[in-house]
Design goal:
CATH architecture of the largest domain: 2-Layer Sandwich
Shape: globular
Mean pLDDT: 86
Helix content: 25-40%
Number of strands: 9
Number of domains: 2
Structural class: alpha/beta
Strand content: 15-25%
CATH topology of the largest domain: Sulfite Reductase Hemoprotein, domain 1
Strand order of the largest sheet: 3-4-5-8-9
Distance between the termini: 46 Å
Number of helices: 12
Length: 272
Amino acid sequence: MKWSSDAEAAVKKVPFFVRKKVRARVENDALAAGKKMVSLADVKAAQARYLKQMSSEIKGYQIDTCFGSGGCPNPVASCDGLLQRIEQLLQKEDLLSFLKQRVPSDIKFHHEFKVTLAECPNACSQPQIKDIGIIGAVVPIVTEEECTLCDACVEACKDRCITIDNASKAPEIGFKCCLKCGQCIRACPSGTIGAGRKGFRVQLGGKLGRHPKLATELEGIYSDDEVLQIVKRCIEFYKKNSKHGERFAEIFKTTDFLKDLLHLNSYENGLS
């Protein structure tokens, strides 16, 4: 649906974490009114109604993905099944009731516990600034297939993690900079670079606001079941330590909490 220039400018001022919802609502209201273009008046009216009804729409958590089912242009791992399982867990944990007990004022969207899933390291859903960020990943490995020295893997790697060793006539992968995006695997015509462990990277404790903080990444690649257990442990930690509705990032103790997570056998099996 077309938007007037002043309507576009107005909706861009809405906080990004609710902008998509506001935009969809504006368009639905305009369509219901038989309009073919969204005006500034439509934006203001819909925004006013949205903010007024905010309390009825808060559910205690937010869970997002980048493009939705089948929409990622560079998928490494499908998030569909995991997304459903995590949302079921969040619903069961009843975070809204928890926040009502702990937050001394009216609950706003920024109080909600935020989880996001990205199917590739482009991370359009911004996992680095959420309470829990989950990113599709696949570890590239060098197989026994003969390398054709075509440099396709070198050209495909945006992070310049691959070089060709002319002596051994084989690719070398620099794992310190590798984001496990799988582009080199797809580009290799000979199968010399293949897929190793596939799953998800996990980042914890990111946030925006007055004191923004980038998330801390757990070491390793995790399966669906392991990710679900990590989310569960994080919720348990959050409920135990958020006394007044503080965000997970504000109570997240990197050393102690990560040590606790990484000592669990199921997680150790996930390390690469």
